[in-house]
Specification:
- Belongs to the short-chain dehydrogenases/reductases (SDR) family.
- GO terms for molecular function: 2,3-dihydro-2,3-dihydroxybenzoate dehydrogenase activity.
- The chain has eight helices and seven strands; from the N terminus they run E-H-E-H-E-H-E-H-E-H-E-H-H-H-E.
- With 251 residues, it is an alpha/beta fold.
- The protein has a single domain, classed as Rossmann fold.
- Strands 3-2-1-4-5-6-7 form a seven-stranded parallel sheet, sandwiched between helices.
- Strand 1, helix 1 and strand 2 form a beta-alpha-beta unit.
Length: 251
């Protein structure tokens, strides 16, 4: 099979890159000829992910809540690669809970990482990008429809979704694109944990609500993310792309 070269020579920062959706996107980017800087919180898992991707990947262990991480990551990418073409900002899912059960501390901690931390990195990345650059923000279908039991996600993701459009207007004149991705039920460890919390039959009930009647695979999400960051999607910006098997009932 001929290797795709749609990202040949391009370089990206990928957060949440040690597993799940972030790692799947990194795999797709590297498979298309890109180089990636992975960011993740667990050094061991992160190191294994970078090793699996080979010479096209380097890694920085850290949390988006760290105020210095964004500057360090951009400087490292430019120093190692000599260029930066974009980022995929994938933030781990916040703790489950209801409006009444979620504590102030859970809100503050999630806001610092999911909201402020993500925006901090995006600002630093966008400042370093030139024409052809692209930033993808991994959100959730909760950006458009609330998901029962995921109150923090329901509260924070829609705000980030609005900022995708706001920021895209700001950087589009420089030739930089910003898009949001809304994964639905993708078969990751995070979703498996949520299913386990919901009890027996949770996956079957969830699949019954999906028009395609199955969960997506991380690889399916990764291919969409890689395409949206590529120059083949050069006229797409300021929008949210669902990767959900048709589960969202909004257009």
């Amino acid at each position: 099979m001929t290797r795709s070269v749609e990202h040949d020579g391009r370089c990206y920062i990928v957060t949440g890159g040690s597993r799940g959706l972030g790692f799947a996107a990194a795999q797709a980017l590297v498979g298309a000829g890109a180089r990636v800087l992975l960011i993740g919180r667990d050094p061991d898992t992160l190191g294994a992910a970078a090793a699996d991707l080979g010479e096209s990947a380097i890694a920085i262990a850290g949390d988006l809540g760290d105020e210095m991480l964004a500057e360090v990551a951009v400087r490292r990418a430019l120093g190692e690669f000599g260029r930066l073409d974009g980022a995929l900002v994938s933030v781990g899912g916040p703790p489950p809970g209801s409006v009444m059960s979620t504590t102030d501390e859970q809100w503050r901690s999630s806001f610092d990482t999911i909201f402020v931390g993500a925006l901090r990195l995006i600002r630093h990345v966008c400042s370093a990008l030139g024409p052809g650059g692209a930033v993808g923000l991994v959100l959730s279908t909760s950006s458009r429809e609330p998901i029962p039991g995921l109150t923090v996600s329901n509260g924070l993701r829609p705000g980030l979704a609005m900022l995708v459009k706001d920021l895209s207007d700001e950087v589009a004149p420089r030739g930089v694109r910003v898009i949001g991705l809304m994964p639905g039920r993708i078969a990751t460890d995070r979703i498996a944990d949520l299913d386990a919390r919901a009890g027996d039959g949770s996956r079957e009930r969830a699949e019954a609500r999906i028009p395609m009647r199955r969960y997506g695979t991380p690889a399916e999400f990764g291919e969409v993310a890689a395409f949206m960051l590529s120059e083949r999607a050069s006229y797409v910006t300021g929008c949210l792309i669902p990767v959900d098997g048709g589960v969202l009932r909004t257009p």
